[in-house]
Amino acid sequence: MTKHGDKTDNSEEAKLIIKLMKSSIIVQYFKQIKTGPLLAAFICFWLPIISFAKLANEVIENDTISYEKIVLYWIHGYSSPILDHVFYVFTSIGNVIPIVLMTFTIVAWLLYKEKYLKAFIVIACVGGAGVADFILKQVFHRDRPSLWHSAITETSYSFPSGHAMLSCALVLCIIFLLWNTRWRALTAVIGIFVISIIGLSRLYFGVHYPTDILAGWCVSIAWFAIVLALYARTKR
């Protein structure tokens, strides 16, 4: 069981991270962006960061826990053997090994096509999301929900969701790579569907709170925006 003093220290660390997000050099850089794709990157960075800061504050203050439990119980009320199998497939897709294998395959193909910068972007986006997930979990130390016996066993901390973060990062990379093709709309629709179902699967099995999922998406989108902005600068 975590000591009260440790919880206080973790809360202070989390609050410090939130303040740094709002006053960082990266934020100041994005504030100066006025035109083109960098403006879109700014919007995609700033809004998710604000949302994450809000979610993180609610987690620290424990403001939403009772409502989130209601949501989890409501979702659990629809559980069935068929849905168990369906959601197990989707939650497995978001596991570390499948994400790493898919990332490796994409990077290998890009290297084969001599698209080295795009290969680096994929590595930076997915790898950076993984690093951010590990660090933030250690900072916030949020325990997993324990509301019923789940078919999924998790031992790491809950906030933010690594499944949500990694799957979102990978999907954003795929959309980016196919953006200038006729497949971009279809890719975006399928990608959004997949990351949504992966997020829902984590709630279905009761291993995450809704705020964990939302926070994972926010961090992933913000990190992707940073990488995209740096990529756009190299194309000038």
Automatic annotation (TrEMBL):
Record-linked Pfam families: PAP2
Span of the signal peptide: none
Ranges annotated as spanning the membrane: 38-56, 86-112, 119-140, 160-179, 186-207, 213-232
Record key words, sorted: Membrane, Transmembrane, Transmembrane helix
All copies of domain Phosphatidic acid phosphatase type 2/haloperoxidase, residue ranges: 118-228
The keyword RNA-binding is annotated on this UniProt entry: no
Entry-linked InterPro entries: PAP2/HPO (IPR000326), PAP2/HPO_sf (IPR036938)
CDD domains: PAP2_like_2
Protein name (Swiss-Prot/TrEMBL): Phosphatase PAP2 family protein
Taxonomic lineage from the root: Bacteria, Candidatus Saccharimonadota, Candidatus Saccharimonadota incertae sedis, Candidatus Mycosynbacter
